[in-house]
Amino acid sequence: MAYYFPGAEGVERSFSGVTIRNLIAGPERTVSVAAVNLDGVHPPSISKLSDRAYYIIRGEVEVTVGSETFVASSGDAVFVPKATRHSLVGKAEYVVVNVPPFDPSAEEAAD
DSSP secondary structure string, the chain? Predict the structure, then answer.
């Protein structure tokens, strides 16, 4: 069992102003952690599987969770229960934690 995850080994993916770098991931884990750079819009989505927590390291984002919208900035945390529509808009660096781990097949785009 490994407890050290070198940043250079993280898988990175980008789309529409969002760059996500997996820090801790994989089906054998009970949690996944990713570092995110947002410059624009993280489109509305729903995780059918995971509760999700965001911790804003730097910057400011407008966050919509369900029917609530608010501004989160450096030092703030946001919790999104599974099966809840959510989106982020702004320019920020943040960490996202998924429990259970992120599974792309359990993600649903929400308009």
Answer: ------GGG--EEEETTEEEEEEE--TT-S-EEEEEEEEEEEEEEEESS-EEEEEEEEEEEEEEETTEEEEEETT-EEEE-TT--EEEEEEEEEEEEEES---GGGEEE--
Give the tens place of pLDDT for each residue, 17-60.
999 999 988 778 899 999 999 999 999 999 999 999 999 999 99
Q: Report yes or no: 45 and 36 within 8 Å, Cβ to Cβ.
A: no
Distance spanning both ends of the chain, measured CA to CA:
40
- Can you say whether the dihedral through the CA atoms of 47, 42, 75, 21 is positive or negative? positive
Pull the structure tokens for residue 84. 């809840």
